[in-house]
Structure formats: structure tokens, C-alpha cells
Design brief:
The chain is of the alpha/beta class. Helix content is 53%, strand content 12%. It has helices spanning 21-34, 39-46, 71-74, 78-101, 114-131, 136-147, 157-165, and strands spanning 9-12, 15-18, 49-53, 57-59, 66-70. It has a 5-stranded mixed beta sheet. The relative contact order is 0.12.
Length: 169
């Protein structure tokens, strides 16, 4: 029988970070950058765990709202990773607000994912990257993503899961 050991964890900025040493080190850098901005409050409020994974995505419905960070995301620059954490924290914020409006029940997917939600998350990511004095190339990349926020794929049903599995980031 094979048992999978949980990755080591530590608390950073009030968030549990679970992953190998290099993942935790890069996450510490990214959260350190965010800690110098007002956006850290939103991140702390809406993300309880950041976990190393195969691909990136936010799981706001989990008992502990979890941002799973894929290799391409966390191994990029600490600045980019900080922006990605902020982006997905905003998805969790949208989810939490929609769940409250829905009496605590699971909100509709369009309330926190999909084209309109992605535009809001990209706008927040852009603002955070600006605050962190990001370079123009990175800012332009986020702007281009906002022009076609359907790059995420479908946000409902089996198609959503299949699109998530195609992510390289």
C-alpha cells in the first residue's frame, strides 16, 4: 500500500503554506511583496492555504479556501507569483460575497468564475502589480489577458474540469 505524505507546511502572513522547501521559499518572497501593499488584507481574508500543485487554481469552497499554485506560476518571478496570489484571492472574494448573497449555499459559477469575474480578477492583479512597480511588459500581458478572459475555458460542469486539466500554469 502506498501512503502519500503531506508536504511540509508553515504559516506565512497568517496563511498556511504547504509544499517543498523551494515552493515555500518562493511563496515567502511573494507574500513578502504583498505584505507591503494594502492587498495583503484581502489575501489574508480570502485565502487560508496556499498549496503546491500541478496547475494553478482557486478552491474557495474548501473548508480552508485554498490557492493551488502550479510550477509555472510559483517558479516565475516572485513579483508575478504575488500577482497570481492576489488574482486568485479576488476569485475567492467574489465566491465568498456570492455565497453570502446565496444564504451560505454554493453560488452559481458565473458569480466568481467566467469572463466577467476574470476581468475583475485581472483588474485587481493589474492594480497590485502596479503598486509593486511591475515592469511594463508584465502589465501589458495582464491587459492582453483581460481582452480575452475566456482563456480560462469553461466554468461549469465536466467541460470546466477538462479545461482545468489542460492548464500549463
Amino acid at each position: 500500500m502506498i501512503f502519500f505524505a503531506r508536504k511540509p507546511a508553515e504559516s506565512m502572513e497568517g496563511i498556511e503554506v504547504r509544499g517543498d522547501d523551494s515552493f515555500r521559499s518562493r511563496t515567502r518572497e511573494a507574500l513578502g511583496l504583498l505584505s507591503k501593499t494594502p492587498s495583503i488584507a484581502l489575501v489574508r481574508t480570502h485565502v487560508r492555504t496556499i498549496r503546491q500543485g500541478k496547475r494553478s487554481g482557486m478552491r474557495p469552497w474548501a473548508n480552508e479556501a485554498t490557492f493551488v499554485a502550479g510550477r509555472a506560476t510559483w517558479q516565475h518571478s516572485a513579483l508575478w507569483y504575488a500577482g497570481a496570489i492576489a488574482h486568485d484571492a479576488y476569485h475567492a472574494k467574489l465566491y465568498d460575497a456570492a455565497a453570502r448573497r446565496n444564504g451560505g449555499r454554493e453560488p452559481a459559477a458565473d458569480e466568481w468564475t467566467g469572463v466577467d469575474a476574470e476581468k475583475k480578477c485581472l483588474a485587481f492583479q493589474y492594480a497590485v502589480l502596479q503598486t509593486l512597480s511591475s515592469d511594463e511588459i508584465t502589465l501589458r500581458y495582464v491587459e492582453r489577458c483581460a481582452e480575452n478572459p475566456a482563456y480560462q475555458g469553461r466554468n461549469r460542469g465536466l467541460g470546466s474540469r477538462l479545461d482545468y486539466l489542460k492548464r500549463w500554469w
